[in-house]
């Protein structure tokens, strides 16, 4: 499953943990793609 173009609020703890744990690619403070 791939989720794309989901907005990530810059500086939130939950967002950072989610991004880090899932190795998502971040560009311009937006979540471009994530493989679950």
From TrEMBL:
Organism: marine sediment metagenome
Protein name per its UniProtKB record: Right handed beta helix domain-containing protein
């Amino acid at each position: 499953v791939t989720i794309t173009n989901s907005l990530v609020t810059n500086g939130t703890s939950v967002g950072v943990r989610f991004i880090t744990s899932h190795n998502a690619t971040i560009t311009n403070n937006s979540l471009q793609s994530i493989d679950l």
